[in-house]
Amino acid sequence: MKGFIFAFMFLITCGIAVAQHSDESGNIKRLTMYQDSLTDLGKKLINEDTEMERINANTEFIRTLVKALKVPHSFNFPLDSVKSITILNSPDNRFRILTWHIAYDDGSYRFYGTVQMNTGEKLLMYPLEDYSPLIKNAEDTVTDNTKWFGAQYYKIIPVYAEQNPYYVLLGWKGNTIKSNKKVIEVLSFKNGHPVLGMPVFYGNGKTRKRIVFEYARQVSMLLKYEPEQHLIVFDHLIPPDKKQKDKPESFGPDLSYNGYRFKNGRWEFADNLDMRNMPDNHDADYIDPKKQAEIDKAAAKN
After folding, report:
1. Which residues have a Cβ under 8 Å from the Cβ of 165 and sit 6 or more positions away?
2. What are phi and psi of 56, to 5 degrees?
3. d(CA 176, CA 108)
4. What is the pTM of this model?
5. Residues 22, 30: contact at Cβ < 8 Å?
6. In this structure, are residues 222 and 283 in contact, taking their beta carbons and an 8 Å threshold?
7. At what angle do helices 2-47 and 51-69 cross, to 10 degrees?
8. DSSP codes of every residue in 27-65
9. Closest alpha carbon to 115 in 129, 103, 128, 106
10. Parallel, antiparallel, or unpaired for β 266-270 and 201-203?
C-alpha cells in the first residue's frame, strides 16, 4: 500500500513538473511571437514616411505590447529585439520602465511608455501619458503617471534613502524642429503608485523637482552618470551671443561642465567640473532609433 501511495505521489509530482515546463515553454513561444510583431511595428512607427502611418503603427504597437505584457512572467522576457523602445530594469528588480516616441511632421514629438512592476504571473503596470504641453513649470511640478513629462530614458540611478527610496532617470526629449531637451527625472512610489518629481536637486539657492535642459537641435549634449563620484555630469549650455540669451533653442555646449553630486541626501549643484579623466561621449548613452535603423540597414548591405 505504501508503495502504491509513493508511486501515485511520484506521478502527480512529475505531472505538475511537466505541466509547469509546458506552460513556461508556451509563454516563451507567445512572447517570442509578440516580440517579432513588435519589432516590425517598431520599425514602422519610426520609419514610415507619413505621420498617419507612424501613428497607426504606434496604435497597433501599443495593443500588441499590452498583449505581450499580459503573458505570465513577461517581466523576465527582455524584448531586446525591439529596437524602437528603451527598456530599463531597476537595479533592485522592482520594476522596469519602457519608453519610446513618435516624431511628427512639424518636428515635434510625443512620448509613450509604461512602468511594469515585477509581480510574477499577474500584470501590474502604470501607463505613462505624455502631458508635456500642459506642464508649464516642469522643474517645480510633481505629477503621476497620468501627467507625465514625457521622455525616452536611457539611464536609471537608484537612491536607497531610508524614508523614501527613489530612482533618478536620465532621458532624451525631442522637442521641436529647432531644439531638443534632456531631462533628469525622479521616480518614486507612494502606496504602490508612481510619483514623478521630487525636491532633491539643490543649487543657486533653489530646490528643483526635476531638471530640464534645452539646446539647439543641430548640436549634441552630454548628460551622464559617474557612479564612482556619485555625480550626474552635463554640458554647460550657453547662447551663441548675448542677444539670444532668452532663446534656449539656440544654446549649445561651451566645453565646460556642471553637475549634480549626491551629498547629504540630496543632489547638490557643482560647476566647472574637471572632466579630464572622464570620457567625453556626447549622446553616447542615447541612440536615436531612426539613426540605429539606418546603421543596421547599412550593415546589412555589407
Report:
1. 158, 159, 188
2. -65, -40
3. 4
4. 0.86
5. no
6. yes
7. 170
8. HHHHHHHHHHHHHHHHHHHHH-SSHHHHHHHHHHHHHHH
9. 128
10. parallel
What phi and psi, each to the nearest 5 degrees, are found at residue 86? -110, 130
- Cβ atoms of 248 and 180 within 8 Å: the answer is no
Tens-place pLDDT, residues 188-217: 999 999 999 999 999 989 999 999 999 999
Backbone angles phi, psi at 53, to 5 degrees: -65, -40
Question: pLDDT for 242-276, tens place per residue?
Answer: 999 999 999 999 999 999 999 988 999 999 998 77
pLDDT of residue 16: 44
- Asked whether 208 and 190 are in contact (CB, 8 A), the reply is no
What is the torsion angle, in degrees rounded to the nearest 10, for the CA atoms of residue 239, residue 245, residue 250 and residue 252? 30
DSSP state of 133: G
Cα distance between residue 66 and residue 6, in whole Å? 44
Contact 186/169 with Cβ under 8 angstroms?
Answer: yes
Q: How far, rounded to the nearest angstrom, does the alpha carbon of residue 80 sit from its chain's CA centroid? A: 14
**Residue 10 pLDDT:** 45
Which residue carries 530646490 as its cell? 207
| Closest-CA residue to 138 (of 183, 107, 170, 202) | 183
